[in-house]
Design a protein that fits this description.
The chain is α/β, with parallel strands linked by helices and 218 residues long. 44% of the residues lie in helices and 13% in strands. It is built from 8 helices and 7 strands. A 5-stranded parallel β-sheet has the order 5-4-3-6-7. The longest helix has 19 residues. The N terminus is likely disordered.
Length: 218
């Protein structure tokens, strides 16, 4: 997962790598052709990593003072799955250090299944997009729905009119930002949801909020 607290596996790394480590996203996430053999995926989260997915020492590098971490909303990932519209913001995020809430692991496939049930795609397309979504999520660090995330999400709902999941993604970003800033890094937030983007701009600043342009009406 995302550094900042080391799991048992990472404590075996060299001290300099333990100090400020961060998992690098697989550059071949979309094609499914990994440049290295991936270790088996583990279910759930790792408490020793404070909600982050288990660490993979072979894919870590030192955290530099100017490193930027991007939290992505599920809406941005879904757009990347389907290839709709201008994808530059989310592609930049995936090429760097992408982080998502674990709820994206349900939201993304659920959105794909919903399109199938509405008659918007055949079964073959549903399975193809489901596979793409899985590979995208495998290329991210996932943050669990911890007490800190829930607290931040509730505080955000007090300030802004948001859907529950949108508040959870922003609450996740708030928790990640605190940890990243301790290491001298910076957080950005990427979304395709305009209402959520307005709240993100108020929380993190417009310069650190990446918004995918709305799709044109067909």
């Amino acid at each position: 997962g995302l550094v900042l607290a080391l799991c048992e596996r990472c404590r075996g790394m060299p001290p300099e790598a333990q100090r400020d480590s961060l998992r690098v996203a697989d550059p071949n996430w979309r094609t499914g052709r990994s440049a290295r053999k991936r270790s088996p995926r583990r279910g759930g989260t790792n408490d020793s990593c404070r909600g982050f997915r288990p660490c993979r020492p072979e894919a870590w590098q030192l955290l530099t003072p100017r490193l930027t971490v991007t939290c992505l909303d599920s809406s941005a990932i879904i757009r990347l799955c389907t290839g709709e519209g201008d994808l530059a913001p989310v592609e930049r995020a995936m090429a760097g250090v992408p982080v998502v809430s674990t709820v994206a692991a349900v939201e993304v496939p659920a959105a794909i299944f919903a399109r199938f049930h509405r008659g918007m795609m055949p079964e073959e397309e549903r399975e193809r997009l489901f596979g793409i979504g899985g590979r995208i999520l495998d290329g991210t660090s996932q943050v669990g729905l911890t007490a800190a995330v829930r607290q931040e999400a509730l505080a955000i709902c007090r300030r802004f009119l948001l859907r529950t999941m949108d508040a959870i993604h922003l609450g996740t970003a708030m928790v990640v930002e605190r940890q990243v800033r301790r290491h001298g890094g910076m957080l950005r937030f990427c979304t395709a949801d305009l209402r959520q983007a307005q709240a993100a701009a108020a929380l993190f600043g417009s310069a650190r909020t990446e918004v995918l342009p709305p799709l044109e009406e067909r």
